[in-house]
Amino acid sequence: MADKIRIGVLGASGYTGADLVRLAVRHPNMEIVALTANSHAGKPMRQVFRHLAHVPLPDLVKIEDADWGSVDAVFCGLPHGTTQAITKKIFETYPQVKIIDMSADFRLRDPATYKEWYGLDHVATDIQPEAVYGLTEHYRADIAKARLIACPGCYPTAVLLALLPLAGAGQIDFTDLVIDAKSGVSGAGRSLKENVLFCEAGEGMSPYAVGKHRHMAEIEQEIGKVGGIQDLRVNFTPHLIPMSRGELCTSYVKLVGGATAADLRNTLVEAYADEPFVTVADEGVLPQTQMVRGSNYVVVNVVPDRIPGRAIVISTLDNLVKGSAGQAIQNFNVAYGLTETTGIEQLPLFP
Amino acid sequence: MADKIRIGVLGASGYTGADLVRLAVRHPNMEIVALTANSHAGKPMRQVFRHLAHVPLPDLVKIEDADWGSVDAVFCGLPHGTTQAITKKIFETYPQVKIIDMSADFRLRDPATYKEWYGLDHVATDIQPEAVYGLTEHYRADIAKARLIACPGCYPTAVLLALLPLAGAGQIDFTDLVIDAKSGVSGAGRSLKENVLFCEAGEGMSPYAVGKHRHMAEIEQEIGKVGGIQDLRVNFTPHLIPMSRGELCTSYVKLVGGATAADLRNTLVEAYADEPFVTVADEGVLPQTQMVRGSNYVVVNVVPDRIPGRAIVISTLDNLVKGSAGQAIQNFNVAYGLTETTGIEQLPLFP
Amino acid sequence: MADKIRIGVLGASGYTGADLVRLAVRHPNMEIVALTANSHAGKPMRQVFRHLAHVPLPDLVKIEDADWGSVDAVFCGLPHGTTQAITKKIFETYPQVKIIDMSADFRLRDPATYKEWYGLDHVATDIQPEAVYGLTEHYRADIAKARLIACPGCYPTAVLLALLPLAGAGQIDFTDLVIDAKSGVSGAGRSLKENVLFCEAGEGMSPYAVGKHRHMAEIEQEIGKVGGIQDLRVNFTPHLIPMSRGELCTSYVKLVGGATAADLRNTLVEAYADEPFVTVADEGVLPQTQMVRGSNYVVVNVVPDRIPGRAIVISTLDNLVKGSAGQAIQNFNVAYGLTETTGIEQLPLFP
Amino acid sequence: MADKIRIGVLGASGYTGADLVRLAVRHPNMEIVALTANSHAGKPMRQVFRHLAHVPLPDLVKIEDADWGSVDAVFCGLPHGTTQAITKKIFETYPQVKIIDMSADFRLRDPATYKEWYGLDHVATDIQPEAVYGLTEHYRADIAKARLIACPGCYPTAVLLALLPLAGAGQIDFTDLVIDAKSGVSGAGRSLKENVLFCEAGEGMSPYAVGKHRHMAEIEQEIGKVGGIQDLRVNFTPHLIPMSRGELCTSYVKLVGGATAADLRNTLVEAYADEPFVTVADEGVLPQTQMVRGSNYVVVNVVPDRIPGRAIVISTLDNLVKGSAGQAIQNFNVAYGLTETTGIEQLPLFP
């Protein structure tokens, strides 16, 4: 077995960080040497996440107290806006470190777009250009050579895996995309907000951030790139669903060039024939979050619309795994030349 | 107080029937004199629905054993396909009885359409013409005179209350309607199916009946009627959400005639200004099922789409109340000249 | 109809306050004239609780800005420790006001016990003696004459309704009571705490406050009173269950004097024969929270234990209704000589 | 790596069978060669459990169509009453096969007790004596030599891991055990029963099988064995909780010999110091199902009771993993001399 690669996790007290730790503990090529969480610094991880009490882990420390010299790879689960500065700082002293960023800070290539959506000036525009968009199935070769990987948001992962091949094949109208998205509550993170209390989010559902969810920018960037469209605008409407994990995107597309729903499905089957984590469901089988919970798998499928000339593309994933920590590890595996499925091949947990 | 109106409930062992009983018990002008449920005939209602054990109720009997002569009004919560024959039979002997049908059997005016969607020949085509579509807010005058009221499906109620005024105002394109619908599990009824087991439907969500849900026919019928379009086709895509009650429809519409989202919202505000059960949410407030649970209220709103020239119309209701039993009682109140809100004015239960 | 009684609600931004408002709006003898909520003062209630947006309500004000002179009765849903001072102050100026307190501040008759459990000196020891413990079924006569009613905690209501008659009948051993209690998450209130986030409390369950839950003091006080035992100690072990509403207490009792489980059940049947809100389930039927959700009903039953000489007493209620706001209104009805069931006779909401 | 051991799974269409398959697919020393499920025979597994569609699996066959000669080990997830005959038959032809039984058929050593609880004559009394009770931590040496391993029920696993060491240390009164148990709905299996529909089991909770749950017999057998008590009777009262996975048992014990809660905790700490899957929670930390979901871990702890001379012992596990499929694999590992944690070392899934 290869030597262990020493990893650090920035922001280990969030759900994303915790899920990364959960998987990293059992990854045969990882050794966790640093966990940071400013507000919980000094505490053992077992106090912050009781489900991790079964194994020994480093105590949480402040970012500035971590010894980045002892770390080969950094996973970053910080809130957006905080990652750029720390990334820059780590690279200055330890340019050999690889950073796999699960935040939004390096996903958008254009700093102006970043500012438009996140309301902040990008403070690391010098390193932004080397960031690779970490949608593994579509940027694998670049990821293999990168030292800064900007993992996609959970929604964009679900949407783009479904739509990019169709866009590339010229089978759908780029300007008429309606994406109705549904997410479990863990997508909102662990911070204390009224709308994610059990009594508020349970036994009910609601749209949120309609017309302004930041993941829209990534979707527009990536689909626009395929289509060579500068200012693509899509409809992306997220809903909060009373479940912890899981995301399902129902995309309503207009077919072009005489394509049928079956053609679209074939495009996906071909595109993902050799992919270990993307499953095109059997014909007529509708993807559901239960097919992927707790796993790095994505399920996609295409079904005909009742309106002629349209189709419905459905995709689902676990927002904390393939939508975040799992895909980050997948990218880590690619970046270090490991078997891509290492440490993330668990089958979904059902029921 | 007016004399009590004697009611019978056909199909009292389903969720719809039970919710009707729940409300009828406390309705000041109703007296429950017959409850039928063929498979549970002979049992006390308290054994079939434990939450109704607090009050005395007639035992369940077979349909053929009920004395329809002692009944003024019949609420019908039978599965589709079974209502036509029994309705016909009751009318033959007791033409003065009013029937408020919560099943699908009389909703579609065209028997051919009925056959197309339900796979059955309509066996009461002679009385079908007198059936009034029981969307109270839009057919009130007809309901007041009817003896056969075909209450809309739960989804059509949510969709049509949101879209009919907009269609009527000529503000939306009838041919480009994408309706992404989400429902709690009670919409599937109480029958034993694997997909509605707690472990299957919980902590997960799934689309279902995509492209073939029967409620689509009603939506097309009613919107088509406003627009004078014979063969209107809409996209209607339902999803099963892990909650018991509640339905939310996100309708993506193309604006015509220069209308804006704000114009659409105004249309709804005006249309429902005097309606006791339809609330247009404050500007920018997104409807959520938590706003209506357990009540006869509907909440609607319109928000701008990021794509110019489009808008998003959101509507929500409790599928068992306004989507079924509550609306049936509302129609009963109208039909008998009672105050329309009688017995169904409870505020939503939250949390 | 009697004139409306003008009410004010202290602490209207909590779940208890909101549920009181929900019921009060439809109570035929109540008129809501004041709603207070210090942190939300100035806001319309519809912004704080969206499910109440269907009806007009007074805006929220600070306690000191409410005009208590315009109020006949005050419902208090403040956190413990804050109620005593305000109660005292209101009584000083408006001695004719009736105060129905849903907080814990006046439940314990002994100020020393209050201090022991709540860690605070009682600041209204002069009016404490006139507080009546508001367990309606057992203190009805006193409540009818009281101007200060200390409604029991949700758990004590469930436990005492089940055990007081048995204790009174001398059928159970007071010193060997094990009460395993389970509550939905709304019992924890609306404050932002990590353990009640959807992702923390969902799909899982946990004991909490074991050996130190404050409701234990009330249970010991009331059962001890019946038995004439000064320092009674009971086991009371609460668990947090992934549901919003509902509470179920499983009490394990040792039988004395040759009593059997059937004897105990008979005692309950007799004790509650004329009670409108207490249902003794049919023999062998196990109480479940689904039988009472959203209602003021309580269901109790007794079943034999496999260990000879022991029995299991089970009781269930909705913590926000019979466990709080509903019982408060029941007490209000008693105190004002109204029909006791007025405004709280809704049947349970199921499913 | 050792050669693969070829396994067959009897009853692969239940939750227990499916969870075994989920884990077996990724077990480095297992090769799945046969899956049986009589009612679904002929179907691909992916149609019966959609979450297993990501990997190739043998199609489901009838028991009589499986080639037991090609199998080294059989996992049995059949309903009780059906396992004895098939076990006997397999052993007759293939005596070298090891059978790891997850059903209840060989757990009770006394055929009379089996008949008393299961209402059936034991039809394999000749092989019953060689069955080892598969509570790994307490029967490890026997399991290593066994060819027939009767894995404990989910509840007994949780209860016995907590109580056996305390019973063995003589610290608790065997005759005064009250065990209040709570389980997620998956414990009821995948069969279609009304009480486990989403709408029936969700947002509510209920006791069930009070005084007659069959797992009681195992608990009495094993604790009785330690104490040398022939006819031990314990109180065991299960409750159905609205979550899919997870089980928590709150055991109320009377201390003997001057033992304290701290002494009991120390006993557990010592007993499980070297156990890979049993975690004694930090002092004062209350076990919750969230600590073990989806994993083979058990968490136990002891806290003082408010009643002097008593203590509360709490234990939790995932009923489908450590309570069934996980423990079965743990036993398989022991039986084949593999590292005991192989294939079941995933950390819990949270949130």
From TrEMBL, chains A, B, C, D:
<dbReference type="GO" id="GO:0006526">
    <property type="term" value="P:L-arginine biosynthetic process"/>
</dbReference>
<keyword id="KW-0963">Cytoplasm</keyword>
<dbReference type="InterPro" id="IPR050085">
    <property type="entry name" value="AGPR"/>
</dbReference>
<keyword id="KW-0560">Oxidoreductase</keyword>
<keyword id="KW-0055">Arginine biosynthesis</keyword>
<dbReference type="GO" id="GO:0070401">
    <property type="term" value="F:NADP+ binding"/>
</dbReference>
<dbReference type="GO" id="GO:0051287">
    <property type="term" value="F:NAD binding"/>
</dbReference>
<dbReference type="InterPro" id="IPR000534">
    <property type="entry name" value="Semialdehyde_DH_NAD-bd"/>
</dbReference>
<dbReference type="GO" id="GO:0003942">
    <property type="term" value="F:N-acetyl-gamma-glutamyl-phosphate reductase activity"/>
</dbReference>
<comment type="similarity">
    <text>Belongs to the NAGSA dehydrogenase family. Type 1 subfamily.</text>
</comment>
<dbReference type="GO" id="GO:0005737">
    <property type="term" value="C:cytoplasm"/>
</dbReference>
<dbReference type="InterPro" id="IPR036291">
    <property type="entry name" value="NAD(P)-bd_dom_sf"/>
</dbReference>
<dbReference type="InterPro" id="IPR023013">
    <property type="entry name" value="AGPR_AS"/>
</dbReference>
<comment type="function">
    <text>Catalyzes the NADPH-dependent reduction of N-acetyl-5-glutamyl phosphate to yield N-acetyl-L-glutamate 5-semialdehyde.</text>
</comment>
<feature type="domain" description="Semialdehyde dehydrogenase NAD-binding">
    <location>
        <begin position="6"/>
        <end position="146"/>
    </location>
</feature>
<dbReference type="InterPro" id="IPR058924">
    <property type="entry name" value="AGPR_dimerisation_dom"/>
</dbReference>
<protein>
    <recommendedName>
        <fullName>N-acetyl-gamma-glutamyl-phosphate reductase</fullName>
        <ecNumber>1.2.1.38</ecNumber>
    </recommendedName>
</protein>
<keyword id="KW-0521">NADP</keyword>
<feature type="active site">
    <location>
        <position position="154"/>
    </location>
</feature>
<comment type="pathway">
    <text>Amino-acid biosynthesis; L-arginine biosynthesis; N(2)-acetyl-L-ornithine from L-glutamate: step 3/4.</text>
</comment>
<dbReference type="Pfam" id="PF22698">
    <property type="entry name" value="Semialdhyde_dhC_1"/>
</dbReference>
<dbReference type="Pfam" id="PF01118">
    <property type="entry name" value="Semialdhyde_dh"/>
</dbReference>
<keyword id="KW-0028">Amino-acid biosynthesis</keyword>
<dbReference type="InterPro" id="IPR000706">
    <property type="entry name" value="AGPR_type-1"/>
</dbReference>
